[in-house]
Specification:
Blueprint (H helix, E strand, L loop, with lengths): L30 E9 L6 H9 L7 E10 L6 H11 L3 E5 L6 H11 L4 E5 L3 E3 L4 H11 L2 E11 L7 H19 L11 E5 H4 L10 H11 L3 E12 L5 H15 L1
Parallel strand pairs: 1-2, 1-4, 2-3, 6-8
Antiparallel strand pairs: 4-7, 5-8, 6-7
């Protein structure tokens, strides 16, 4: 990763000609998609998200070529479960970091190893609402000039059992979702649980450890005058926090950006 150029906000070409190459005409190349799942001790859920991604429906214009799980030095059964899945689907690949360095470092590592036209980041505690969730997400790159596409309605999975932490998080989701709908483009628009980036955009990015990954990516996109899309029809579900401490950690980043 030493050869990656560090780019700050607004340092790229403001004309923003980034877009995924048009395809589908006879003789033109298939668009490649890499899925990246950052993980730290996700043994309780990694199989679910991998199963969903492996079974995701593709289209005649794109192919999922790699499914990377970047393990942040996990100490539970996460790595073993990923290797078991890799034995049955060669697209699944485990990348194990020798020491824990956080999600931003995992995202930067992904930028350095992928060369796909589109890279899709999915949190390990996310499940797809349907086999078409990824297809609907990446469709926006084909239909327009988007460089960042946010998974739409990333909401708590149905059938969850309430406890105080989950109830607080569910109320939080309702509040944030309402704010997103009032203003199409704002810092509420981005949710790092599911997001897709075009190659011409991500290849210039290096995340800073002091900033939330999704906010940095969102503001890089907006400040460069590029197109951000909230894919309302590409639905994913995420796991709610089990404790108030976990919920407080999730909410702290919102407080940081509103203070």
């Amino acid at each position: 990763m030493n050869n990656i150029e560090v780019v700050g906000l607004g340092a790229l070409n403001m004309d923003c000609l980034y877009q995924v190459e048009r395809i589908l005409d006879d003789g033109e190349a298939m668009v490649t998609v890499d899925i990246v799942i950052p993980a730290f001790n996700e043994g309780s859920c990694i199989e679910d998200v991998l199963h969903d991604v492996v079974m995701a429906r593709q289209d005649d214009w794109f192919r999922i070529q790699n499914i990377y799980v970047i393990s942040d030095a996990s100490t539970d059964q996460t790595d073993d479960l990923v290797q078991q899945m890799a034995a049955s689907d060669r697209r699944v690949k485990l990348i194990r970091k020798p020491e824990r360095k956080g999600k931003q470092d995992s995202v930067n590592l992904a930028f350095s190893i992928t060369n796909a036209d589109i890279v899709v980041f999915i949190d390990a505690d996310v499940i797809l609402a349907s086999e078409d969730s990824i297809r609907k997400l990446v469709q926006h790159f084909r239909d327009g000039n988007a460089v960042v596409v946010q998974g739409g309605l990333v909401r708590p999975r149905p059938g969850f059992t309430l406890n105080p932490a989950k109830q607080a998080a569910y109320f939080d989701w309702l509040l944030v979702d309402r704010m997103r709908r009032r203003k199409a483009i704002s810092w509420w628009s981005i949710d790092g649980r599911v997001m897709a980036l075009s190659r011409d955009f991500y290849q210039h990015l290096v995340l800073l450890p002091s900033l939330a990954d999704d906010q940095f990516i969102f503001y890089s996109c907006i400040q460069q005058g590029c197109q951000f899309v909230w894919a309302d029809n590409a639905i994913f579900y995420y796991g709610l926090p089990e404790s108030i401490a976990d919920f407080s950690h999730q909410w702290s980043r919102y407080f940081f950006y509103t203070s």
